[in-house]
Every structure is written in C-alpha cells, then in structure tokens.
C-alpha cells in the first residue's frame, strides 16, 4: 500500500465526516469550523485570534473570515483586552445558552461515526492520530 493512498483515504474520510456534520449543523446556521471555534471558546474562555489560529492549525485569514461570520451571526463578540492593542473573541450569551443543544447534535454525530469501531479500535485509532502530530 502506498503512503499517498492512506493519506488520500484519510483526507476523504475527514471531508465526509465534516460534510455530514455541516448538514446536521445547518439548522443552526453553523459549520464544523465554526463549531470548532465555539467548542474551544466554551471550554477555554475568551481567546485571541492568534490563539484560535494556533489551536486549529489553520491560516490567520481563515480564522479572520470565520470569526467575522460568527460575529455577524451573533455567536461571538470581540472584546478589548487589558492591552488595548489586543482583542479577544468570546462567545455571546446566546451562544452560551444554545451551546448544549448544539453540543448534543455534534455528540450524536460523533457517536454515529465512531459506533462502527470497538472500544479497542477507538483507543488504537486515538493513539495512531497522536503519532501523526
């Protein structure tokens, strides 16, 4: 088996999983990338765009566009930090109130995807993903 075949299949599966999640989140006007930011902020509190960029391993312009869209849709606000040059992104009250409902949609999706694996396979898969960092 060629390395490129493994990586290609892996990328195809990730795209498929993300598309399925996008379909489920559509009723909330969210996409998986926005959910990732929402999850990160909910778990860690307000963060700078740089911190979000580093967490998600994407280019800064991608985060800028995604955060702008989330701001327009009422999911996040920008707040000035102690140093006025630094801005933080934080979830709005509405986003916090709706978080659990959206988290349930994501959890159901994840359960459906991973239900095809045994507990042993899940642990092996997790360890393999850690090695790919």
From TrEMBL:
SUPFAM superfamilies: Winged helix' DNA-binding domain (SSF46785). It holds the Pfam family MarR. Keywords: DNA-binding, Transcription, Transcription regulation. PANTHER family: TRANSCRIPTIONAL REGULATOR, MARR, TRANSCRIPTIONAL REPRESSOR OF EMRAB OPERON. GO terms for molecular function: DNA binding; DNA-binding transcription factor activity. SMART domains: HTH_MARR. This is MarR family transcriptional regulator. Residues 3-133 form the HTH marR-type domain. The keyword Transcription regulation applies. It comes from the Bacteria.
């Amino acid at each position: 088996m060629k390395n490129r075949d493994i990586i290609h299949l892996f990328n195809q599966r990730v795209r498929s999983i993300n598309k399925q999640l996008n379909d489920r989140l559509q009723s909330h006007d969210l996409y998986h990338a926005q959910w990732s930011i929402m999850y990160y902020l909910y778990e860690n509190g307000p963060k700078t765009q740089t911190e979000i960029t580093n967490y998600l391993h994407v280019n800064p312009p991608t985060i800028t566009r995604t955060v702008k869209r989330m701001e327009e849709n009422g999911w996040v606000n920008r707040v000035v930090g102690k140093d006025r040059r630094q801005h933080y992104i934080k979830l709005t009250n509405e986003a916090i109130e709706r978080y659990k409902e959206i988290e349930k949609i994501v959890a159901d999706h994840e359960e459906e995807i991973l239900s095809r694996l045994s507990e042993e396979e899940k642990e092996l898969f997790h360890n393999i993903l850690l090695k790919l960092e």
